[in-house]
């Protein structure tokens, strides 16, 4: 059974889209199972129904207002450089309203329900072995994996949304009395879960460079420093996931193909820039093509 696994990585998911497009269209890879965390969970339903053109249009045209109903960021552009700073007004408003997060991502929930149709949900359940998204149950301090085969359409869309909620910058969700957030807080790339679910060959797309090519610049204010620290912690979780996944693959005799980004694409994956995401999609396709031409 062949599986495609895509890690978390925010806007860097565009790179994963390019890699997946090459593998599915040029290498004719057919996957029985798709697993994703955070941005990976946004990609896998569309890949499962082989709607790569639709996915490209959605992903490269997404803007901040499609993600945040209350954005904690102000997007700036200076020459070719794009960056964010804190939106003090929105963040203060969240405190006044006694919210526990700097921003809200209910706009993303509406976008998911708009772009993942009920017909596609039915098609996936009928044609594919499984599509699985990763969430973090903060109340119980555990990672959970939500299968499309065990969810209603509304539940599945909700779990995809929850898998992307990068707290404290996005919404904290509550389901059946438990509080949930981004699956990357516990499992950035669920390789081991794919093996446990029966995968015998895995293509895993890791939205981070295999080695750090340059020194990271930490934030100049507490808010941007927090983003940098969260990124550091998620990188450590990701590296552990890969080590555990490699050991599990070796133990179960599973063929594991890892696709990293050739360079560190961005210091802030919560910037959704059409120009950058189109560029990263093309780079992902070119990277996969170059790797398979050797």
From TrEMBL:
Keywords: Hydrolase, Lipid degradation, Lipid metabolism. A motif (GXGXXG) lies at residues 8-13. The keyword Hydrolase applies. The active site is at 38 (nucleophile), 182 (proton acceptor). It holds the Pfam family Patatin. Residues 4-195 form the PNPLA domain. InterPro entries: Acyl_Trfase/lysoPLipase, PNPLA_dom. A motif (DGA/G) lies at residues 182-184. GO terms for biological process: lipid catabolic process. One of its GO terms (molecular function) is hydrolase activity. A motif (GXSXG) lies at residues 36-40. This is Patatin-like phospholipase. The lineage of its organism: Bacteria, Pseudomonadati, Bacteroidota, Flavobacteriia, Flavobacteriales.
